[in-house]
């Protein structure tokens, strides 16, 4: 039991570091929360969480490991994910270059989007990132030995689901608070420029990443 507990804690710690550290998904949630509000950010977060859970299930059942052996599949995911991140970089750059009042510029750069569309964007972002597959394979391999039971798999997945909701939705809630919104409004163009650089770097890095 103690041995299993140590493995579970190791996996949970690894997941917190992987999911909570700044990356395309977290930065997208932060940006959406600041300029579109909490509801929009939570919808986007729900898509990211769903994508994370999907790859977690695939890793636990061995499907993602099988997928990772086919370079063509990872190449397709890499191209989709990289192009999507470059699209986000373009939109953020357009917002950064839009002069005028923050509210007006924000409205131009970030027109209202439905909750479903935001959910699908978050889902696409996570599903199209091959690094998500490999990260989950590493976590599951780390936590599940050859004698792992079905209950061990359930405990790991359930714990990571809770952590995923807490982390991604936590970003949505924190960055949609009034202080954060005021910061965004006062430094909108600088924030959009940072997001453009971050998304552009991540997109190019993903496209150039050798599978």
Helix content: over 70%
Give the CA-based shape: globular
How are helices and strands ordered from N to C?
HHHHHHHHHHH
How would you state the average pLDDT, rounded? 79
Distance between the termini: 37 Å
Return residue spans where pLDDT drops below 50 for at least 5 consecutive residues.
102-109
How would a crystallographer describe the biggest sheet? none
Strand content: under 5%
Gyration radius, rounded: 18 Å
How many strand elements?
A: 0
Q: Give me the secondary-structure category.
A: mainly alpha
Number of domains: 1
Number of helices: 11
Description:
The structure is a single chain. The protein has helices at residues 2-20, 24-36, 38-61, 63-68, 71-97, 102-109, 115-127, 130-143, 150-174, 178-186, 188-208. By secondary structure, the protein is mainly α. The protein has one domain (2-14, 37-208). Helix 2 packs antiparallel against helix 3. The chain starts with a helix and ends with a helix. Mean pLDDT is 79; it is low at 102-109.
